[in-house]
Design a protein that fits this description.
heterodimer; A: 87 residues; little secondary structure; two-stranded antiparallel ribbon; 2 helices; 4 strands; B: alpha/beta; 7-stranded mixed β-sheet; 5-stranded mixed β-sheet; 17% strand; globular; 4Fe-4S (chain B); lyase activity (chain B)
């Protein structure tokens, strides 16, 4: 059980600062942030909600292990679907 | 002969080229005059707070604070552009150590740089370790630099004490509302107590924390400036109330800024086509608020990594790559900096003790209506720029009481063509829109085509005052308009 950061991440560091298990680090060579799949607990036992995806400002940047976005398009900004940026 | 007061005139001081080119813009001494002497002592050399200072002293921002704890509908965290100048935009993120090195490199090379600010690109207090370790190192290694910080306020009450420990005596809080219902239209969510809190509930938390933070800073004798973004249809009717509230709690300056929102910025407001205020709307609101509180009009809404005098950006001279190659002897730099600062302070002191007046050739009856004029200037407080080269115009008001600076208007922020411009698809259409409310444009030269277009839009071009001091030129044009009967219906004869 672990969340995953994908390349829509803009490297704002917010998730790293709130992760209770220290599972988030910056990727090498300016790549986006990454979650250690072995240590991420999805914050179970620490908080009611996963912390990284609760502070992440970018929709569809963090995914569940099945590949679905924790914060789907429109869920953070309230933008209608027809304003979706090309992914 | 009437002694006509020109507000904030400081013709005897040398205005550096490259920065704001207005001879007297923003919070002139009339606007800072209600401040206590101790507060005035603390702002006189801060370019963002003192209108006079911003002609002489430079500032810089270091981008060490990327994370944010709230979302604002005018901000897009994905955006990064070297060519654009607006808040939240940066080219490279720095570690605290890099930021200290960059600050000292700039201080050594631009000795008139007095202020280092941290303004993001996220929220500085949502990155407390990076922000405070930068401040800690600078307090030790560069004690002659003032430090300041700009925040959304959510984390502010927790850091009020920490803020007093460094060389910080100015904090800016962005407060767009004091009503959570309005706040919910500006802030979709805040991250609070380990949860994302949305809507009115989230906005209420933010507003309460901002107000608590403001009170705590004032109690600790830290100067607080409040920034507000004017959002027509959302908070424009509400900001006078915001002004009243923050002033009653001790904020010393209020800065109402226009929304910058274009679809290509990718912000919620940009994509939803929320419009910014027209220059006229902005000025009316600033005037309305100034009845209540000290206003600021020379703000350039700069980048989170800006370097130099307001109105210029020398960031490209100080990239990390270039800084790595620089050898800095800060002990020597401090000696040089002190000399430069003393010289500027002496100039400023001379300017304030000198009589700020000019002889007017004509008195204008007190009931005569005021006129706004736009000036194309590239510095030195002179009418010295070709109309076609102007990227911003300085707007002055002439009235029987004299000439005062009102605002600067950037032409590239407004319509430059396309379907949002009602005047057609020309750059000129955008300029005319930016100059709304102005009756004349003073420039060194102007082409035939824009001349005709401006004239038919009711804005009189004027190239007769090239190289003259702005205030003198504006007054001369005002007198001429009066003499030609353009200012009163029942004009009889001159009284002078």
């Amino acid at each position: 059980m672990a969340l995953k950061i994908v390349d829509r991440c803009v490297n704002c560091h917010a998730c790293q600062m709130v992760c209770p298990t220290g599972s988030i680090r910056k990727g090498k060579n300016d790549a986006h942030f990454l979650i250690n799949q072995d240590t991420c607990t999805e914050c179970v036992g620490s908080y009611d909600e996963p912390q990284c995806s609760s502070i992440c400002p970018i929709e569809c940047a963090i995914e569940f292990s099945d590949g679905s976005p924790v914060n789907p398009f429109g869920s953070l900004t309230g933008l209608p679907l027809d304003k979706a940026p090309l992914v | 002969m009437l002694e006509l007061k020109v507000l904030g005139d400081h013709s005897e001081t040398e205005v550096p080229q490259g920065g704001c080119s207005s001879g007297s813009c923003g919070s002139t001494d009339d606007q800072l005059s209600h401040l206590s002497e101790s507060v005035r002592q603390r702002v006189f050399n801060h370019p963002c707070y003192s209108e006079q200072a911003h002609h002489h002293f430079a500032r810089m921002h270091v981008a060490v604070a990327p994370a944010c704890n709230i979302q604002c509908n005018y901000c897009n965290r994905k955006y990064d552009c070297a060519n654009e100048s607006r808040p939240g935009v940066v080219s490279e993120l720095l570690t605290p150590k890099q930021a200290v090195k960059k600050t000292m490199a700039v201080a050594a090379n631009i000795p008139q740089m007095t202020v280092l600010g941290i303004a993001g690109p996220g929220d500085p207090l949502a990155n407390p370790n990076k922000t405070f370790s930068t401040f800690r190192m600078l307090t030790e290694q560069a004690p002659d630099i003032k430090l300041c910080v700009s925040t959304n306020g959510l984390a502010l009450p927790d850091y009020a004490d920490e803020l007093t420990k460094h060389n910080i005596d100015h904090v800016t809080i962005t407060i767009n509302c004091v009503d959570p219902e309005i706040g919910a239209k500006i802030y979709p969510w805040v991250f609070w107590n380990n949860k994302r809190v949305r809507g009115v509930e989230g906005a209420k938390i933010l507003i309460d924390r901002q107000q608590e933070g403001l009170e705590k800073l004032v109690e600790r004798d830290i100067l607080v400036k409040v920034n507000s973004v004017m959002l027509p249809g959302i908070n424009d009717k509400h900001l006078a109330e915001v002004s009243r509230v923050v002033k009653s709690k001790g904020a010393f300056l209020h800065n109402v800024m226009p929304l910058i929102a274009e679809p290509e910025h990718g912000t919620y407001f940009g994509l939803m086509e929320q419009r910014g205020p027209t220059p006229k709307e902005l000025q009316e609101l600033q005037d309305e608020c100034s009845g209540d509180m000290n206003m600021m009009r020379h703000c350039r809404q700069c980048r989170a990594d800006a370097v130099g005098l307001l109105g210029e950006d020398r960031g490209a001279e100080f990239t990390m790559e270039k800084i790595e190659a620089m050898e800095i002897d800060y002990e020597a730099a401090m000696v040089k900096r002190k000399k430069v600062h003393d010289a500027i302070n002496a100039e400023l002191a001379k300017a304030t003790t000198q009589s700020q007046s000019v002889n007017a050739d004509h008195a204008i009856p007190a009931e005569t209506r005021p006129v706004l004029m736009a000036i194309a200037s590239q510095g030195g407080g002179l009418v010295n720029q070709h109309f076609g080269h102007a990227k911003e115009f300085l707007v002055y008001e002439a009235s029987p009481e004299g000439v005062r600076f009102i605002s600067h208007r950037k032409t590239d922020l407004y319509c430059t063509g396309g379907d949002t411009c009602g005047d057609g698809d020309s750059l000129l259409g955008g300029i005319i829109k930016a100059l709304e409310g102005c009756e004349a444009v003073l420039c060194s030269k102007i082409g035939y085509e824009p001349w005709e277009t401006l004239e038919s839009a009711g804005i009189m071009p004027n190239g007769e005052h090239a190289m003259e001091k702005i205030e003198d030129a504006v007054w001369a044009v005002y007198v001429e308009m009066y003499q030609n009967g353009k200012l009163t219906d029942n004009q009889t004869q001159m009284t002078a």
